[in-house]
Amino acid sequence: MAGTTRRTFIAGAALVSVLPLASARATPEAMAAAIKEVVGDNAIREGRVTLDVPPLVENGNAVPLTVSVESPMTEADHVKAIHVFNEKNPQPHVFDARLSPKNGKAMIATRIKLGDSQKIVAIAETSKGEFFSASADVIVTLAACLEDLT
Amino acid sequence: MTNVLINAPKTAKKGEVIELKALIMHTMETGFRPGTNGRIIPRNIIERFTASWNGSEIFRMDFSPAIAANPFVSFFAVASESGKITFRWTGDEGFAAEESVAIDVA
């Protein structure tokens, strides 16, 4: 049968082996799509947001991350939400936080997992409907989510 | 019994912005890792963390599997009135935990 030559077989095998890998990770495109879901057609501006994350981490299982946003946090002008995204973990979302003037200060700290060296993006949504963002690149030596160590 | 650690001031001046820190023991299993038998360990995470001051919600955060095990969250709040700050975590497999601290606002 002329249908399956060695060349097409190899090409097919390569495709099959690549596909599951591709679907197991979020990609920069997946992150962009997740961001679009939150932001819609609004413009995202750089600035006001500070994303504090170490540039080099040894252990991706717990990476300290702090997001703070410059805002008066008054009824008229406050940060409504802070969203954090990543581009190479299995899913692009990290967290979504809802804030109000009751917080007084738009600052959140937590610890996250990173499956690979990648870019993190934080987006702040203000009560005026504006979106501000900041991003940071992180190099991870030991990735999270590899295997069960227990 | 779930292990929870809360760090909040016991007293505050009215209008003061205070920091609240909450940590809870939880594996935050992502659902992406294979176990020792090669099978994927099912996802088991905390999905939502909320804080309320005397019953009215002041902060809400939705987690994803990318939040580290034993989730720690620090955020701020304006001291409004004396009473109780309640922290609540809910998640997969019917997980629910609640912890309250008292605060005196002068």
UniProtKB/TrEMBL annotation, chain A:
Ranges in a coiled coil: none
Domain Ig-like SoxY: from-to ranges: 36-145
Name listed for the protein in its UniProt record: Sulfur oxidation protein SoxY
Signal peptide stretch: 1-32
Keywords tagged on the record: Signal
Pfam families: SoxY (PF13501)
Keyword Signal annotated: yes
InterPro entries attached to this UniProt entry: SoxY, SoxY_para_1, SoxY_sf, Sulphur_oxidation_SoxY, TAT_signal
Transmembrane segments: none
From TrEMBL, chain B:
Chain ranges of the Sulphur oxidation protein SoxZ domain: 9-101
Matches recorded under InterPro entries: Ig-like_fold, Ig_E-set, SoxZ, SoxZ_dom
Record-given protein name: Thiosulfate oxidation carrier complex protein SoxZ
Upper classification of the organism: Bacteria, Pseudomonadati, Pseudomonadota, Alphaproteobacteria, Hyphomicrobiales
